[in-house]
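The authors assume throughout that readers already know how a fold can be written as discrete tokens. In essence, backbone conformation is discretised, so a fold becomes a row of integers matching the chain in length. A single example would do more here than another paragraph of explanation. For illustration, here is how one protein appears when written out as sequence plus structure tokens:

…
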Amino acid sequence: MATLKLEIVTPEARVYSDEVDMVTLPGKEGEMGIYPNHIPLMTQVAAGEIIARKAGQESYLAVGDGFVEITGEKVAVMTDMAVEADNIDEAQAEEARKRAEARLAEKLNDEEAAMVQAALAQSIAQLDVKRRRKR
């Protein structure tokens, strides 16, 4: 069976690198399912959850905004944040969400508002992934 090389990188590190059977990505226009031999594509990734399926097992990662380049053999995700579900600290993510929401209530310039919105999206993505996997 054909596989895809999935690589997820942030400015700090390579967070994930493995051969997988299928990848589900949170795109700006909606969720995308990527299988081997997918048509080449470059698009934006929205803050949310990436699911990597390999040999019947699934790995879950919370990701921030970024870009993905898809070829028939590889999915390369470049994002500002990526954390595996098992490594998410729910209390810390909840505190980050509260701080970002409080900061949004302040008078911010456009650049500050964009940074706070990104932080809020990242914390919400982490909380969603962690809470969904607790069930």
User: Anything to note?
Assistant: The chain has a mean pLDDT of 92. The first helix runs from residue 90 to 104. The chain is about 30% helix and 40% strand. Residues 4-85 form a domain with the ATP Synthase; domain 1 fold (CATH 2.60.15.10).
